[in-house]
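Researcher: Go.
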Amino acid sequence: MKEETFLGTGWSFPPSFNADSGTVITVSDATDIVQSLQILLTTKLNERVMRPDYGCDLTPLLFENITVTLLTGIKDIIKTAILKYEPRIDVADIAFTSDESTEGVLNILIDYVIRKTNSRQNHVFPFYLNEGTYIK
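Model: Structure:
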């Protein structure tokens, strides 16, 4: 019998299987939260059956020039999605980085606290933009 984990267990992402036992590979605790965040951030609205409002639809923003207004909008979209669909964490901060060596990539840095353990974690999500965008 499997031991229950403190923060939950879910399928690994991307889903993978153990060929020997014929079972799905699972992840637990902080790893499950990180993979859940990755799924939430990469899922478009209306993409999931029976959950049309699940996800962070950042794709319409791909070809926008990066302004303070746009960054504030991205923060709001992400905070709202996490608040609604990832109850195991509290968002402490969302910040952005970009440099010339990764032109066309805006790294979204999400600092969060796991509620049950009060441990601080972070997740970096690379948001791929079009060539020639810039931060004003």
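Model: Residues 131-136 have pLDDT under 50 and may be disordered.
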